[in-house]
Amino acid sequence: MLEVFKSTSSKVILGLVIIIVTVLQYHFWIGEGGYFPHQVLVQQIQQQAEVNSELKERNRILAAEVYDLKNGAEAIEEHARLDLGLVKPHETFVQMSTISTHYKPIYIDPNAKVDLRTNEYADEPVPEQP
Q1: I need a labelling partner for 129 at 20 to 30 A (CA). Which of 28, 53, 67, 106 fits?
Q2: Three-state SS string across 62-122, please?
Q3: Domain limits of the chain?
């Protein structure tokens, strides 16, 4: 078998075959439309499909809200009450607080000597920094 590659023409043909295979492999893996660019495009398409599905859901909700506003007085009344704070005659407005009841109130004794930077009681005044 080594006798086949002793001639110059067979060496040239072998060299050309190696170059052609290398070029084809480059185009297959890295070139335009190759495997790796294709995988990047597939990933981008998948991400865009997720964004599109979120936007479709948002558009569906907005379309339902527009339909309610055009065809029903209840939605308009709800928006007027929530956004503008409108109250019908002979109604009492009650506003509920959303502040948690588990907070620790902060009371500052005006006569106490407290270093507000460290929140510790101090026996002597703290010098001011320039």
Answers
A1: 106
A2: HHHHHHHHHHCHHHHHHHHHHHHCCCCCCCCCCCCCCCCCCCCCCCCCCCCCEECCCCEEC
A3: 10-90
